[in-house]
Amino acid sequence: MLDEKDLKMIDEIFAHRLNVVMESAITPKLNLLAEGQQTLLETLAPKSRVEELEEEVDFLKSIVKLHSQQIAELKKAQ
Hints:
With 78 residues, the protein is an all-alpha fold. It has two domains: 44 residues; 34 residues. The protein is built from two helices and no strands.
């Protein structure tokens, strides 16, 4: 049967192996995820800019609609 010294040694070995796995497999993947997230944050337009563009697109749509109506009226008048 295992005594306390054996259990402590097993615990230390397990902890060491767990640290090795974390350092070699998990930590690099987390770092890559963090780098990818940072890249996304740097390339995304700020929310205020998106809202400005949405307003501008809505305005342009209304102008296109108005011009389409005016063109249709001019064609009828011919």
